[in-house]
């Protein structure tokens, strides 16, 4: 794999760390700014909505820039946002830093996915995307726990200084390792035209609905472990680390199988999410079983990412940057929808296992959308595994790296 993929993955690592580390710092932030923890929690939701809005918007504004130039600018913006956050004199200033960082997040992951796919042969695109997204998975295993520990020991500002430093190293890697390209030949209006296709919207819906079960489960896994399974609070980080290890393992596996047969992989993985969510229901009262089921859940969840991202790139081959950015927004829409629905069931008194029922239902719904999408492919005479698009890419129909 090209070294440029490692630079892209390091940027994703910094982004994944800052996205989730804030949850572990909420008590310190609330105390420092003399506000409540629910108010401090707006730093999480504000970031998520910033990604949803910022991914397509920033990508559209940079549509005429070479992709390497856009990536450099986005990572520089990411560093600046974390300097603002580290120096924030007020809660409002910190929120501004978070929103600026979220705008860089969505566009970087979207454009970076396109660049990663163009760095390798067409038949290896999903694996390249998986390697880049491994940075996000590694953030859950290493970045978030270490960032939380650092913030608790040295103050929350130290976490933001550290993430800024990671961004500087990633920025240098992008500058030095990502190949330079010319200006994009595809105009913004041509990129937007891809969204007139129902197939593109189905692929985006597949991402939003199919990914929603993941955060629906992960958000409420701590009370599930303590209130239902019987783990102590101190054991929760250990179990969460195993979940993160599962996610780290799953991405490359999903990428390999998606390269071989994209839509069959999508069907299997979304169906697998429903199965492992149901398995968690059966395992919830047994400590050994729930750890095994959560680790398997992490593997399957992470394996869906390259498949879903590649599917969108295939469905909008003429608009790779905008489609990829829109898919990042769809992932984050799933991040919002899954926990919201799961929270409603808990609030209605159905207990801490109810998010697992929600996850099963959402995964089945995502699978239904995927099956509909595949059926429309067959009816229109398009191969269900994206072979037509990959063939076009190998003949030069897809822009080369850096564009």
TrEMBL record:
Pfam families: MFS_1 (PF07690)
Transmembrane feature ranges: 42-63, 70-93, 99-120, 127-146, 158-179, 200-222, 234-254, 266-284, 290-308, 329-350, 356-376
Annotated membrane topology: Multi-pass membrane protein
Localisation: Cell membrane
Gene3D superfamilies from the UniProt entry: MFS general substrate transporter like domains
Domain Major facilitator superfamily (MFS) profile: 4-378
Predominant subcellular localization, coarse grouping: membrane
Keyword Lipid metabolism: no
Keywords: Cell membrane, Membrane, Transmembrane, Transmembrane helix
Disordered: region residues: 383-403
Protein name per the record: MFS transporter
Species the sequence originates in: Actinomadura yumaensis
């Amino acid at each position: 794999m090209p070294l440029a993929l490692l630079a892209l993955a390091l940027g994703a690592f910094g982004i994944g760390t800052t996205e989730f580390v804030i949850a572990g710092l909420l008590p310190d932030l609330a105390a420092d700014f003399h506000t409540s923890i629910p108010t401090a929690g707006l730093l999480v939701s504000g970031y998520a909505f910033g990604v949803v809005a910022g991914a397509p918007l920033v990508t559209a504004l940079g549509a005429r820039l070479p992709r390497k130039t856009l990536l450099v600018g986005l990572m520089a913006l990411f560093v600046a946002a974390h300097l603002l956050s580290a120096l924030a004199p007020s809660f409002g200033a910190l929120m501004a830093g978070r929103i600026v960082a979220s705008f860089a997040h969505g566009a970087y992951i979207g454009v970076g996915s396109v660049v990663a796919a163009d760095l390798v042969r067409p038949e290896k695109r999903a694996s390249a995307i998986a390697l880049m997204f491994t940075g996000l998975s590694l953030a859950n295993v290493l970045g978030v726990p270490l960032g939380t520990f650092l913030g608790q020991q040295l103050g929350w500002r130290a976490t933001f200084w550290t993430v800024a430093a990671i961004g500087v190293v990633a920025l240098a890697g992008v500058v030095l390792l990502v190949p330079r390209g010319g200006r994009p030949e595809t105009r913004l209006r041509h990129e937007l035209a891809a969204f007139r296709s129902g197939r593109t919207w189905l692929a985006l819906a597949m991402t939003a609905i199919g990914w929603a079960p993941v955060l629906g489960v992960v958000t409420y896994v701590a009370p599930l472990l303590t209130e239902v399974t019987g783990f102590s609070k101190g054991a929760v980080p250990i179990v969460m680390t195993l979940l993160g290890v599962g996610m780290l393992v799953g991405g490359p596996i999903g990428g390999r199988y998606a390269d071989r047969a994209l839509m069959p992989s999508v069907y299997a993985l979304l169906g697998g999410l429903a199965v492992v969510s149901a398995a968690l229901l059966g395992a919830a009262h047994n400590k050994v079983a729930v750890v095994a089921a959560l680790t398997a859940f992490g593997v399957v969840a992470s394996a869906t990412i390259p498949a879903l991202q590649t599917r969108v790139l295939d469905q909008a081959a003429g608009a790779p940057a905008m489609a990829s950015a829109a898919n990042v927004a769809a992932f984050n829409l799933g991040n919002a929808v899954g926990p919201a629905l799961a929270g409603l069931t808990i609030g209605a008194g159905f207990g801490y296992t109810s998010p697992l029922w929600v996850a099963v239902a959402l995964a089945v719904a995502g699978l239904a959308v995927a099956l509909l999408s595949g059926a429309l492919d067959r009816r229109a005479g398009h191969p269900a595994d994206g072979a037509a698009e990959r063939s076009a890419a190998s003949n030069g129909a897809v822009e080369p790296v850096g564009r």
